[in-house]
Amino acid sequence: DDTLNARRPRVFVARRIFPEVVAQLREHFDVSTHDTDEPLSRDELIARLQGCDGVFVAGTEPIDATLLAACPTLRAVCSMAVGYNNIDVPAATARGVVVSNAPGVLTETTADFGFALMMATARRITEAEQYLRAGHWKQWSVDGMAGADIHGSTLGILGMGRIGQAIARRGVHGFGMSLVYHNRSRLPAEDEAALGARYLDLPGLLKAADHLVIVVPYGPTSHHLIGAAELALMKPSATLINVARGGVVDDAALAQALAERRIAGAGLDVFEGEPAVHPGLLEVPNVVLTPHIASASLPTRLAMCQLAASNLRAALTGQAPPTALNP
Ligand code: DGY
């Protein structure tokens, strides 16, 4: 029916996503897609969004006030990421544009990865593998590739949201770690008691942690939250793990601290200016580097896309999206 077709909302999918999710969207919308992994620039995005009602994005598309002003037909911005530092939510709200992210579905998968990165860093797994592959392994050695323990050590969590708490549970219940944390607000007393969690200010956390895991959202208040002064407070035997956003850590300061062995190691899944990686980090052996894959199990990436698609359907049919971000 042409009349009905004419009224179908138009949706742009700004990233290559799973074909089955695009097919689901096509049941409800006129869908156009950007089908490669090469991100669109803001100007290209603006051009593709003309006449569109909704857009499906990831954590990489810059949805700022300029773009929103240049796309007056846009009513919904739905992201498959939990982090939404790429979206100006107040600017969208001011224009009546519904914004959603994709929390919850990636919590356990991301916590698994954060823990894996911590273990790989503490036990020097990638460094040891590179040593072996390079043919350097000639004999067993009493302290060769010896690292730090996970079990019984002190886990420090910076950012005690869903993912921080999921990592904390793994450490406390699975590995007998003691738990210290810092967050904008304290956990309820019963949650602290269940984890044996000790709340500290940021300097206190940095001094106490054997393994510090960063899981805070990125924004103006967390930009370079960890720089040279903060790294200087950490134990020389400590490791730093970042599965949040690169901008939370001053990568130049971190590369220097690693090179000078002022901390023992780092495990990084995110970088300032990624996919570029600070050259200093590529030069030091005591860092485990992964390409922003903490939520990348296949089932979880599919669930993230499906949640973003549900949000789009709700937003464009006048319902409240399950995980809207507008106040
Ligand atoms: C997220 O969901 O925020 C991940 O970092 C992927 O962008």
Largest sheet data: 7 strands, parallel
Q: How many domains in all?
A: 2
Q: Numbering strands along the chain, what is their spatial order in the largest sheet? A: 8-7-6-9-10-11-12
CATH architecture of the largest domain, by name, is 3-Layer(aba) Sandwich
β-strand number: 12
According to CATH, the homologous superfamily of the largest domain is NAD(P)-binding Rossmann-like Domain
Helix-strand pattern, N to C?
HEHEHEHEHEHHEHEHEHEHEHEHEH
The Cα radius of gyration reads: 22 Å
Distance between the termini: 38 Å
Distinct ligands: (2R)-2,3-dihydroxypropanoic acid
Structural class: alpha/beta
Low-confidence stretches: none
Described by the principal axes of the CA atoms, the overall outline is: globular
| Residues in β-strands, percent | 5-15%
CATH class of the largest domain: Alpha Beta
CATH domain fold name of the largest domain: Rossmann fold
- Classify the helix fraction into a percent range: 25-40%
The pLDDT mean sits at 97
Total helix count? 14
Explain what you see.
This protein is of the alpha/beta class. The protein has two domains: 2-104 and 298-316, Rossmann fold (3-Layer(aba) Sandwich), CATH 3.40.50.720; 107-289, Rossmann fold. The chain has helices spanning 2-7, 19-26, 42-48, 65-70, 89-94, 107-122, 125-133, 162-175, 189-195, 202-208, 228-231, 251-259, 279-283, 298-316; strands at residues 10-13, 30-33, 54-57, 76-79, 98-100, 154-158, 178-182, 197-199, 211-214, 239-242, 265-268, 287-289. α5 links the parallel β4 and β5 (98-100). α6 (107-122) crosses α8. The longest helix has 19 residues, at 298-316. The two termini are 38 Å apart. The structure holds (2R)-2,3-dihydroxypropanoic acid (DGY).
